Amino acid sequence: MDANNKHELKQGLSNRHIQLIALGGAIGTGLFLGLSQTIKLAGPSILLGYAIAGIIAFLIMRHLGEMVVEEPVSGSFSYFANKYWGKMAGFMSGWNYWVLYVLVSMAELSAIGTFIQFWWPEIPTWLTALFFFILINGINLVNVRFFGESEFLFSCIKIVAILSMIGFGAYLLLSGSAGPQAGVANLWQHGGFFP
Description:
Layout: H1 15-26, H2 29-42, H3 46-70, H4 78-85, H5 87-119, H6 125-142, H7 144-175
Helix pairs in contact: 1-7, 4-5, 5-6, 6-7
């Protein structure tokens, strides 16, 4: 390869792709699958837990955003760990990030299998996970524009699903067709705020 060849990156994602990828990435299977078990175990106090975790995540992202604005570099946050805390911190944060996303990806594939088994119990979870693993990797390997359009579509589906659930819940609360109305007192009745 000639040392004089310049490789320039081509922008394949538009602003709408990036915004919906960020929004869709924040909405995971935890909202649809994991939240029910958490509410069952922790009760209404989960609101307090989510508020604390949300504030901490907001502050961390705010600090990271300040660092990126001050020093825009190509790379992830492990660059800053390497620069300010040393090579070992950069190395560990980079590998921890990689391991995190490998584990999260496998959890997401297992969750897809759980959702599919709800409607089609005869399909094994591993087969669904394998199918979607191949599909997701195929989308990632085609080109960045196709990936952006796919992520845009999937994020729109998630957002429409959430808005539909909120709308249906509001309908049930306002119409009275859901039975006895739940009030704010349910936050401390039936076992208390911290059951």
